[in-house]
Amino acid sequence: MRNVALFSLLVSALPLCAQARSPVVVELYTAQGCASCGEANAYVGKLAEKPGVLALTFSVDYWDYLGWEDTFAKPAFAERQKAYVARLDLREPYTPQVVVDGRAQVGGLQDDKIDKLVSDTASSRRRGPDMAFIGQRRVDVGSGAVPRGGAEVWLVRYDPREQDVTVRTGDNKGQTVPHRNVVVEIKRLGAWRGKPTAYRVPQPPAQGLATAVIVQGPKGGRVLAAAVKD
Question: What residue stretch is flagged as signal peptide (predicted)?
Fold first, then answer.
């Protein structure tokens, strides 16, 4: 009982130590074999430098058949994009695509529309649960309103470095494709039901990766809150 009471006290203090404002989550779905993706990659790379934005690059593998296997793609990333296809009532997945906070999507080459979505989301989104990383192995999510169907907590590991990949075959043969904030791992930590909850954070698969945690409605729902580990 003493440990439970202590945990409740610590989590109730989240607003005092959590990040003051949740960043807007911008997800780019891209592929090195996509002829029009390089420009979108470069733009999202610049967007990643803006305060209040968490820009994440998800590489997908469904264009590999064109002759070049994407060096960053994983099936889990394409599955995440498919959830947005259903949620946002799209006909099929495509690249380059940008999804903002799980609320809306736009083609990755439409810079002005992306900027407007990010700005509108930042100004209109309701405050979500407070979040705080506790040491290296735990993240706490505070209390808050839960959407219908509940919510999920996702761990995202990404490489914050700028990376250029030279494509040797396929539609982008001979082209150098830029990347920034390349996601290397996404893992569901558990459900969130509106009450203060602690989640165990596993060790990263490699050194030099950044860590983000996203609280989101299920099956491609809206992002409620996000936090990046300092």
Answer: 1-20
User: What is the C-alpha end-to-end distance of the chain, expressed in Å?
Assistant: 32
Across 21-150, where does the E strand assignment appear?
24-30, 53-59, 97-100, 104-107, 131-134, 138-141
- Do 98 and 55 meet the contact criterion of CB atoms below 8 Å apart? no
Peptide bond preceding 196 in cis form (omega within 30 of 0): no
* Cα–Cα distance for residue pair 76/155, rounded to 1 Å: 13
pLDDT tens, residue by residue, 37-61: 999 999 999 999 999 999 999 999 9
Give the span between the Cα atoms of 62 and 33, in whole angstroms: 9
- Taking Cα atoms as reference points, which of 98, 128, 156 lies closest to residue 22? 128
SS3 category, 3: helix
